[in-house]
Amino acid sequence: MRKLDKQLSCCFTGHRDNKLPWRGNENDPRCDKLKKTIYDAVEAVYYSGIRHYICGMATGCDFYFCEAVLKLREEHRDISLEAAIPFEAQADNWSSSQRNRYDRLVSECDFHTVIQKEYSSGCYMRRNKYMVDSSSVLISAFNGKSGGTMNTLLYAIRNGLEVIQLPIED
Fold this sequence. Notes:
Elements: E1 9-14, H1 29-47, E2 52-55, H2 61-75, E3 80-87, H3 96-108, E4 111-116, H4 123-133, E5 137-141, H5 148-158, E6 162-166
Parallel strand pairs: 1-2, 1-5, 2-3, 3-4, 5-6
Helix pairs in contact: 1-2, 2-3, 4-5
């Protein structure tokens, strides 16, 4: 993979669908509002100079982020999108609809970075550190609860990234 300029790169962290108040019901108006907020943030960092976006490809907010970047890329062909995959079989145990969505989104990414071949404890945080270490901006959809999203957000702050926090409505 070619080396991309971290100053022109943005990554994302956010909760999986089962941790969101609407529990995966994307017809919920709060979900629509978050998707719009994510798109607006993706567009804003584009206009600030960001051209490369890195997504961890988990269900929930990662999917929303990936879809927002793909939508923006329809208008701005200078955008590249990278799938940062923690381990090869990340989506193997997901529902068929989640797996189909994952496969479609990964296929639309310009780059694929698989952090490691097989699952091990800590592989998700290694993926998150890779994304932060490769970026200058982090967009975060965070509800204040501890977990991987909080750990990634704190890691980004400690490493001096510009952080854009997006609210999640209860």
